[in-house]
Design a protein that fits this description.
14 helices; alpha+beta
Length: 518
């Protein structure tokens, strides 16, 4: 018999009944039922219930076992018995129809009192979880998440190769190049006073590959960026599915990637429906309707421009704003939010976000009629209020919130309000995945950013003409949970020729100052 195990803790089934087996693993949970010990033994593969009765030679030793001790147990596999005519099978366990009657036990490793339990899924402070990360990673949910990540990456690789892409690895120690964040620098021992930069993306090297004729490239690329943390991205480093294609149009990229990404969501989405034909949403439309360039399309709330209803109205705050041509008033409908309690809660939330407040109207029943309530309704009058309700398709029991000013300044807040209202009113359909392409981004207008121009001649997804060479990076816009991405965003780096003209292919920068130049 093997020194540690003949089977894993996820192997045993009814077909093994009568066999003598050896298992090794962690004591996940120990229960004493009237002098009979039940030990749920855990390893990477699963759980097996082991029974130690008082007649067993191993009983005295088993009484000393504590949670997370590493033990080896030998015994006979038996079918779980029925008690008082009721089955004791556990349908939630793969091994739930059998148990192992232990005859011999050995302690392989003891554990001190645990700072956080492995059994269960209790919330603990992040500092504690990170300090005892090896314990945190033993917990079922975290362990499954780590395994899921590996399976998703394997699926990506398989699907990309089936689509004719070749995987290449690019250097990690490189020279600094203008990107969207600050670089992480690594001093060179061989060249004192000079520094390597960790890549924010495999920009230059992948473009070298494409110019060398490697037609279709992809990489699960590590990216290092010294930037503020985001909800959907780890601080400092993250991974992205990075790809390039030659002699294709924008539509070719879409048609190639849609079945790959949708297929991954279908494979790991636990049966939830996934968008088959992704809609193409222009950037300006996404910002106007959803307040975000990566909108959660599962949220049915769509914002509308209601400026005309406030122009020259009695609500002077908005009326004065609309005297400036660039200013607008957007309305966020909130079906089911028609109560003062909900509206006040949204107003308090807006103030916590640094805003002066959030104007609102809600509709309620009064004397057998639908009545508009709220400070905005009192100032603009019943005719304008009714026009707003009609435009938005609202009814009694609904509400609407307003954001006003320069859309470029308040769009992000309006998008956050849309998300907040959708979550609080439970309008978001979490049982499906909605994916989309956001196209025609602002880069096509020669927008200036960080004191440097992005030329409208740069190849990008906003160009409607076909690409002679196209380059794309697919990024998930998920929040925290890796399988809740509401949208996919297509991005394109700068032209390879412009990159080569700007910087020689040296992997060293002379100084931190030079390495951080923009």
């Amino acid at each position: 018999m093997h020194a540690y195990r003949t089977h894993t803790c996820g192997d045993l089934r009814e077909s093994h009944v009568g066999e003598t087996v050896r298992l090794s693993g962690w004591c996940h949970r120990i229960r004493d039922h009237g002098g009979v010990l039940f030990i749920d033994l855990r390893d990477h593969y699963g759980l097996t219930q082991c029974v130690v009765d008082p007649d067993s030679p191993a009983f005295k030793m088993a009484e000393t076992f504590r949670a997370e001790w590493v033990v080896r147990l030998d015994g006979e596999v038996k079918r779980r018995p029925a008690i008082d005519g009721k089955s004791t099978d556990n349908a939630e366990m793969a091994t739930g129809r059998i148990e192992v009657y232990v005859r011999e036990a050995q302690v392989l490793g003891q554990a001190a009192e645990l700072p956080l339990p492995v059994f269960g899924d209790q919330d603990y402070p992040e500092e504690t979880r990170l300090k005892y990360r090896f314990l945190d990673l033993r917990r079922e949910r975290i362990h499954n998440n780590i395994m899921l990540r590996g399976k998703v990456v394997d699926s990506m690789r398989s699907r990309m190769k089936d689509a004719g892409f070749n995987e290449f690895q690019t250097p990690i120690l490189t020279a600094s190049s203008p990107e969207g964040a600050r670089d992480f620098l690594v001093p060179s021992r061989i060249h004192p006073g000079k520094f390597y930069a960790l890549p924010q993306a495999p920009q230059q090297y992948k473009q070298l590959l494409m110019m060398a004729g490697f037609d279709r490239y992809f990489q699960i690329a590590p990216c290092f960026r010294d930037e503020d943390p985001r909800a959907d991205r780890l601080p400092g480093e993250f991974y992205q599915l990075d790809l390039e294609m030659s002699f294709v149009t924008q539509e070719d990229v879409f048609e190639t990637m849609e079945p790959i990404i949708s297929g991954i969501f279908e494979q790991f989405g636990e049966g939830k429906p996934v968008t088959k034909k992704w809609p193409r949403i222009p950037y300006a439309e996404a910002m106007r309707k959803y307040g975000s360039d990566k909108p959660d399309l599962r949220n049915p709330l769509i914002m509308q421009n209601v400026s005309e209803h406030f122009r020259d109205s009695g609500f002077k705050v908005f009326a004065r704003m609309l005297e400036q041509p660039k200013n607008e008033v957007w309305a966020l409908p909130a079906p089911g939010g028609g109560s003062r309690t909900f509206c006040d809660r949204m107003n308090s939330w807006a103030q916590s976000e640094g805003q002066p407040g959030l104007g609102y109207i809600f509709w309620r029943e009064a004397n057998g009629q639908t009545e508009a309530a709220g400070p905005v309704a009192k100032n603009i009058g019943p005719e304008r209020t009714e026009a707003i309700r009609t435009q938005l398709g609202l009814k009694e029991g609904d509400a609407v919130f307003f954001a006003a000013g320069d859309p470029e300044k308040f769009a992000k807040f309006a998008g956050a309000a849309r998300t907040k209202a959708g979550e609080d009113l439970k309008l978001i359909d979490t049982e499906r995945f909605e994916l989309a392409w956001v196209v025609d981004s602002r880069c096509s207008s020669g927008m200036r950013t960080r004191k440097r121009s992005i030329s409208p001649t740069t190849p990008s997804p906003c160009r409607k003409a076909g690409w002679r060479r196209s380059t794309a990076a697919i990024r998930s816009a998920s929040r925290r949970s890796s399988m809740t991405s509401p949208a996919m965003v297509l991005r394109s780096p700068r032209a390879a020729s412009a990159t080569i003209a700007r910087k020689p292919w040296s992997r060293l920068s002379r100084s931190p100052a030079m390495a951080r130049r923009r």
